[in-house]
Each structure stands twice: as C-alpha cells, then as structure tokens.
Specification:
By secondary structure, the chain is of the alpha+beta class. It has three helices and four strands. A four-stranded antiparallel beta sheet has the order 1-2-4-3, covered by helices on one side. Strand 1 and strand 2 form a beta hairpin.
C-alpha cells in the first residue's frame, strides 16, 4: 500500500515543485496550464494520460478551452504520496517540452 507523506517529506517534495500548489483541504497538489488553443490543451492532456496510465496513477483534472487544471492526490493513502510527486515531475517535464 502507498503511504501518505508526512509533513516534513511533503514540505521537502513541494520545495522542488515550484509551479505546483498545495491544497490543504484535499492534501493534494494542483497546477494550472494555459495553452494557445483547445487542440494544444487536449494534446497535452492526452500526453499526460499516457504518463498517468504508465504510472498507474491518474489525476483529477478539468479542461475549459485552452486551460487544463490538474489535482494530484492518492486516494488509497488518503492524501499526498510519493506517487503524486513523481507524476507531477513527469508532467513538469512534459510541460517544459511543450514550452510552458
């Protein structure tokens, strides 16, 4: 079973994820992305979906036209886990390659 990060591990992990924000009520991290248009946003979501499937860890997210919002938390752990941090790092790499 995946373990929830304790406060010290969470704070250390968040220090390395500058664009992600901690969501206290959900014990989760969030990040918003903005693209030129819907096709770019949807393409990004498709690429993230492949990363998530490979990791067997799936985000909560939404898309409105050129915006994508992602929330990561581990339901089995009832909060933030290393799986969330690892997926956030992979999403950040993808975003960087996309010019974000």
């Amino acid at each position: 079973m995946v373990k929830k990060l304790d406060a010290a591990a969470r704070d250390k992990a968040l220090a390395g994820l500058g664009a992600w924000h901690y969501h206290f009520e959900r014990d989760a991290i969030t990040r918003d992305f903005k693209f030129e248009n819907f096709v770019e946003a949807f393409s990004f979501m498709s690429a993230v979906a492949l990363l998530a499937e490979k990791a067997d860890h799936h985000p909560e997210w939404s898309n409105v036209y050129n915006r994508v919002s992602i929330l990561l938390t581990t339901h089995d752990a009832k909060g933030l886990s290393e799986r969330d941090i690892a997926l956030a790092r992979e999403i950040d790499k993808l975003a960087a390659r996309s010019g974000l």
